[in-house]
């Protein structure tokens, strides 16, 4: 192997974001440069992508998040048009079910109604606002005694296969000439406002543009360029359980405590964000199985009496690439470094936002600006300007 190689664009991280960027960039006829994706673990065993719940929803409270998900559902439904290679397209196995956000107080119900008005104003009309009584009539298996109101997605919300989407992006990118290198980045060469090379354990790779798409490891990669990025790994336990009672038309239920539960074939998947004092930064993959019995099961049974009798089957830990500044994506260049772009900090929204984010970063590289969906609000420059994005629906 030579001691030095060069690519016009080097993407650090080959998960869903890195592969989406590479795919969009290589497919752009206006871009003629070379692209390399550096991924230290090509098995993706410990990646956030592989351990994702991979759901998509329209129910956000900010216009830009809604628009990203609107494009995301279009992409998922039309994946064959974007990702087919030699006539073969990935099957993303999209299962459509609505998100059901619950409110148990007047203040919570007011927020849901305000967000519902924003969604309606943007043309997202397939979301119903329901009183507790209306919810009980729609889902008789649910205990609605404490429910003040709820919003329910009627279309374009559900789950898909994260592995198939990742492999679809990756296969398409490679068919268009993108090089995937199983190498770990250990350093960067920076001179003033420019990154001239990245160092791997094997050699130095010269570059024109570098993209940090390293997910839960984004902060460490940014530090190689002397940048303190407020993106940390936050472990999230995911549990799969069975219930002997058949429950029809089950949505993805989210209560005010952050508990979520959704169907997965004949089983159910659930989890819940920990309280702030327990929400630690860690790359740990161990599962605390007591979390299910002590925290999740009582809440599950509160909303669905049939969940009094369940059997937990398996569990895993995935990691949010958590943006401690405002829990929203950080996209584009950071002040002080012109050719280092960020695609980080999605805080649990990465899978559903990957088509729009990847397309957006590819446009910044090819044109120096967004050409389709304007994602300027997510600029990493808002860190220095102290302009947080306030999103009510961070799960």
Assign the CATH superfamily of the largest domain.
FAD/NAD(P)-binding domain
Q: Report the helical percentage.
A: 25-40%
In round numbers, the mean pLDDT is: 95
Using only C-alpha atoms, the radius of gyration works out to: 21 Å
- What spatial form do the alpha-carbon principal axes imply? globular
- Strand-residue fraction? 25-35%
Order of helices and strands: EHEEHHEEHEHEEHEEEEHEEEEHEEEHH
Number of domains: 2
Number of helices, counting only DSSP H or I runs of 4 residues or more: 10
- Return the structural class: alpha+beta
Which CATH class of the largest domain?
Answer: Alpha Beta
Q: Outline the biggest β-sheet.
A: 8 strands, mixed
| Strand segment tally | 19
Distance from first to last alpha carbon: 45 Å
CATH architecture of the largest domain: 3-Layer(bba) Sandwich
CATH fold title of the largest domain: FAD/NAD(P)-binding domain
Unreliable residue runs = none
């Amino acid at each position: 192997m030579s001691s030095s190689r060069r690519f016009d664009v080097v993407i650090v991280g080959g998960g869903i974001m890195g592969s989406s960027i590479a795919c969009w960039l290589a497919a752009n006829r206006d871009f003629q440069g070379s692209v390399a994706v550096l991924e230290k673990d090509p098995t993706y065993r410990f990646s956030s992508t592989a351990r994702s719940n991979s759901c998509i929803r329209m129910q956000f409270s900010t216009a830009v998040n809604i628009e990203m998900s609107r494009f995301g559902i279009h992409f998922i439904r039309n994946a064959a048009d974007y990702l087919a290679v030699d006539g073969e397209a990935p099957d993303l196995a999209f299962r459509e079910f609505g998100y059901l956000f619950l409110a148990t107080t007047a203040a919570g119900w007011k927020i849901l109604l305000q967000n519902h008005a924003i969604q309606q104003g943007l043309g997202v009309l397939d979301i119903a606002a329901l009183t507790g009584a209306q919810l009980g009539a729609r889902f008789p298996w649910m205990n609605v005694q404490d429910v003040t109101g709820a919003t329910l997605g009627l279309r374009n919300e559900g789950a898909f296969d994260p592995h198939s989407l990742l492999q679809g992006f990756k296969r398409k990118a490679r068919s268009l000439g993108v090089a995937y290198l199983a190498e770990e980045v250990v350093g960067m060469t920076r001179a003033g406002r420019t990154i001239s090379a990245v160092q791997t354990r094997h050699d130095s790779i010269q570059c024109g543009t570098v993209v940090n798409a390293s997910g839960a490891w984004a902060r460490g990669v940014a530090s190689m360029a002397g940048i303190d990025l407020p993106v940390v790994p936050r472990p999230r336990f995911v549990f799969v359980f069975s219930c002997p009672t058949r429950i029809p038309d089950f949505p993805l239920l989210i209560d005010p405590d952050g508990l979520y539960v959704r169907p997965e074939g004949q089983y159910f998947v659930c989890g819940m964000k920990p309280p702030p004092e327990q929400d630690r930064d860690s790359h740990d993959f161990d599962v605390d199985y007591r979390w299910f019995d002590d925290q999740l099961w009582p809440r599950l049974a509160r909303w669905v009496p049939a969940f009094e009798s369940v059997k937990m089957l398996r569990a895993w830990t995935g990691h949010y690439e958590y943006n401690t500044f405002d829990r929203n994506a950080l996209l584009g260049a950071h002040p002080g470094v012109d050719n280092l772009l960020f695609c980080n900090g999605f805080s649990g929204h990465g899978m559903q936002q990957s088509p729009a984010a990847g397309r957006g970063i590819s446009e910044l590289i090819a044109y120096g600006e967004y050409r389709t969906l304007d994602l300027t609000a997510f600029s990493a420059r808002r860190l220095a300007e102290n302009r947080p994005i306030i999103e009510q629906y961070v799960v």
